[in-house]
Design brief:
InterPro entries: AhpD-like, AhpD_core, CMD-like. This is Carboxymuconolactone decarboxylase family protein. The chain has 7 helices and no strands. By secondary structure, it is an all-alpha fold. The protein has a single domain, classed as AhpD-like. It is globular.
Length: 157
């Protein structure tokens, strides 16, 4: 299976990609816990049906030391006992921020207040930016039907 468009070979897409990848550096350098970052990118990718990003973020999280139990339970985080309260707040914010079109009010005040209990302002800023960024990547890959399964950890570092 091939993608509809080679985003790396396209001058416009490659230039755009370079800019959004550089934006992700600010997030990886933030104080938002790395484990939380992995959970957020994986959950948004699952919701958006982005096989490429789901593959990538699962493998990168595992490579960084995340357990298979936690990775396998991300889609069912509400019922799982393996996530901290802070991670659960981040996952809720991720779901609501990713499913904006499904809820007339967008992200609820309750979800925001819960996240604010666990993260300082800089971490919240990183979390909001990360949710926006992963949704952009997901949409690009879903639109071009980027194949999944061959990603190797660190391949796009």
């Amino acid at each position: 299976m091939d993608a509809r468009l080679n985003l790396i070979a396209s001058p416009v897409a490659a230039k755009f990609g370079k800019h959004i990848v550089s934006a992700s550096k600010a997030l990886s350098d933030s104080t938002l816990p790395v484990a939380t970052q992995h959970l957020v990118t994986l959950r948004a990718s699952q919701i958006n049906g982005c096989g490429f990003c789901t593959d990538m973020h699962t493998k990168d999280a595992e490579h960084a030391g995340e357990t298979s139990v936690r990775l396998n339970l991300v889609a069912a985080w509400r019922e799982a006992t393996v996530f901290t309260d802070a991670e659960r707040a981040a996952l809720e914010l991720t779901e609501q921020g990713t499913r904006i079109a499904d809820a007339a009010g967008g992200v609820t005040d309750e979800a925001w207040a819960n996240a604010a209990k666990h993260f300082d302002e800089e971490q919240l800023a990183a979390l909001v930016c990360l949710i926006g960024l992963i949704n952009a990547f997901n949409r690009m890959n879903v639109i071009v039907k980027q194949p999944a399964g061959d990603y190797q950890p660190g391949q796009h570092a």
